[in-house]
Amino acid sequence: MFVALGALLIVLWPQSLGGDVGYIKVSGHSMEPTLHLGDLVVIRSESSYHRGDVIAYHVPAGQVGAGVVVIHRIVGGDAHAGFVTRGDNNHYDDPWRPRPAQIVGARWARIPGVANLFSRLRGPVPLAAFAALIAAMGAAELTKPRRVRRPRAGRISPTN
Question: Would you say 105 and 46 are in contact if contact means Cβ atoms under 8 Å apart?
Fold first, then answer.
């Protein structure tokens, strides 16, 4: 069980902590019907990106919206000149041409509607409640009496 948990942590370790996985909250309608408002999209950094990939990228510095993360589909271009991207629900290309250095990653998984729940849990009261729950569980585990195993009747114990 610990090996499986460790493997899961490695696979899902966030980019903000040095991993390959990012988590993006869909906050608009431009990717419908593929992605919906409030979906959580799990993205992974890739060695290359291609036409048809749904990618998340930072709007380049010096541009309107600089630093904002956009999640749209590659519809043209290349890594050298920059990719042409567009939301599935849009009839126009994005004004930016992200290059690999600006790309956060490509869509790996979509969890419908979960991002709104996570957004509500980020406030101070839910975080404090969660921390208190974890602390209580840890305290309960530490104060739990240890069970001493006794040999069953009819069995010979190593000391006999």
Answer: yes
- CA torsion 97-98-100-103 (nearest 10°) is -160
Q: Where are the domains of the chain?
A: 13-116
13-116: CATH class: mainly beta
Contact yes or no for 56/43 (Cβ under 8 A):
yes
For residues 5 and 66, the answer to whether their CB atoms sit within 8 Å is no
pTM beyond cutoff 0.85: no
Query: Which residues, including other chains, have CB under 8 Å from residue 151's CB and lie 6 or more apart?
Result: 157
Question: Could you tell me the CA-to-CA distances from 98 to 28, 40, 61, 101, 119 in Å, in that order?
Answer: 20, 22, 11, 8, 27
Instruction: Please report where in the chains the tokens 């975080």 appear, as a residue.
Output: 127
Which of 6-10, 31-35, 43-47 is the most confident on average? 31-35
